[in-house]
Amino acid sequence: MNLVLELRPPESRFYGSWRERLETVARLRRPDEVHALCEQAYALGVRTVLAVLDDTIREALIAFQRWRDVAVWAVLPNMFAFIRDLTDLGMVGAARSRFLRLTPAAMARTTLGALGALGAIRRRDFVAGALLVADMEMAALRGLRVTRLLLHPQLTEIALAGGLPTLFTELATRAARQGIEAGIVTHNPVRGAAVLGADLARFPAVIAPCNPLGYKMFPDREACEALFRSDPGRFFADEVTAGGSVVVGKALAHVEALGLGGAVLDVRAVEAAYREGRLDGGTASRAV
Amino acid sequence: MSTPAPLRAAVVGAGRMGMVHGHLLQIHPETELVAFVDRDTGLAAHLASQGLRAELYPSLEAAYAETAPDALFVCTPTHTHLPVVREALVRPVHLFVEKPVATTLADAEAILDLATRAGVMHSAGYVYGHLPVVAAARELLAAGVLGEVLRFTAHAYVSEVFGEKRGWFFQKELAGGGVVANMASHLLFILGWFFGPIRRVVASTRSHASAVEDSAQVLLTFTSGVTGLLDTSWSVPGTQMLDYGLTVDGRRGTLVLGRDRILLHLLAAAGGYEAGWNEIHASALPADAAFDVSPHIGGEAFYRQLTTFVRACRTRTQPFSSLTEALNTQRMIDGIYASAASGQPVDAP
Fold first, then answer.
1. How many independent structural domains does chain B possess?
2. ipTM
3. Is the pLDDT of residue A49 over 90?
4. Which of B164, B292, B293 lies closest to B235, judged by CA?
5. Containing domain of residue B193, as a range?
6. CA-CA to A38 of 20 to 30 Å: which in A125, A178, B55, B347?
7. Residue A287 pLDDT more than 50?
8. Which residues from B are below 8 Å from A87, CB to CB?
């Protein structure tokens, strides 16, 4: 099974307690700690990292990719950072701060790309704005070898609610232009399949919750599993331990039985499995 | 049995929350989004680009004339809620008002009075009250699993304000306050729902980054006799989403409520739970939401909130999240600011 480590800024996760939050955030704010976590995941057989990127995670992954042949699937944009910048700096300020992080060559490429969408950006077109921000964050990922692009779930769910296949197909087109692929990460895969129709085939990885408890599976477990069974290799299981309620070994067995393309493991699941030295062990990954 | 006609709803205010509600109204099988209302009609293209298909009207009058909604979602800046509700209730539409309901207790009372006199169903947008674990915790307390509830401690933190901030959200007269009115009010609503009407508040607030209060420490006493402490700040590093927690002590044990689970420690078996530690995780609770519009903030609670409101309108029964319950929250907010300003305990009116 293709195992995927999920990384995102530690401040954007939920924790069992405030103390657990402080300890984990302090630890995973350090690139060397993130790198060490990646090594643990690698030892367990993980060969892909799904990452919402910030400076710490980017630095850690660049170092990790120097030693290990791992794929990085980038989730763009870093939505929480973008929302914070929107509040502090406004739309123009948020875009400007991202633009200024680019190299001169990337600035020129982004400017050229944005010229064609100037009217849409002026009209505050959702798809054009989302893609521009994603483009700028993608251009800032220098040094990182990214093999798949995915939109942040906060954007994805809004686009799926609004029935906007264009956002996804445009992303797939942009990814193809760079010689890579696009994916989808969502809590609403059934809605995603309905919105995208035949275009779903353009996304070789659709990441969605899949666990034996139906946790976070919308609209329900039955509908999600029916979709997964229709094309199992395309789907990657997220939330496999149902928030730590299912032991990692049992969670992966469930994914395997459905024949899915792979499983996404969060930090807790990887650390719990690494402590045991195996993925098929019986330790629950939830801290108390 | 025939399927009831969908609840036809309009959204006033095309900002972030207005768009979230618009999407849910469009996707929920029991509702239909019929109009947006915003003075800035230039937003029409922006709404359409998000797939929000309802027409944008510059006034309630125009929206009413064309669409005759059954319900109205008030998602404008807080200081406009009362005038919007006053204008809205020229016809008897059911009301959903985003939180906080008003910038002052007097305005919140006036809003509730208008809705009551109009005879409509109403709800406030304290979305975290609709999370399955919160509802389960309330059921445990109501069932007396902890025995007599004695005290609680609570926190609500988020990493948002570390320097000067601009916009209406950071002006007290427009937003009703800072972290207390706009973030901790979610938890205040839950506390009121759990413990009943507020009796007395003692509070200290501090502004260390923005023009409104950025942190507060509050001692709350409810008429039920329950007392407890709330610590809140939006200037705490480490959490991009609202991190809240509530620990309730009773004569028979302790309940710890987090985002996705309840830890229950009982001195003796009760209510089907064993003595010692019990865990109730969200994954073990009934899942009745069909769409997750915001996985990281609020999650399925937004969908459940809408379902609760729709069912209330259909059955003509006020929901637990009604403006009456929200008035209790507003009394706490008002008491916190009054106590912080005077340095004295404040009794609820």
1. 2
2. 0.93
3. yes
4. B164
5. 128-294+319-347
6. A178
7. no
8. 160, 165, 167, 169
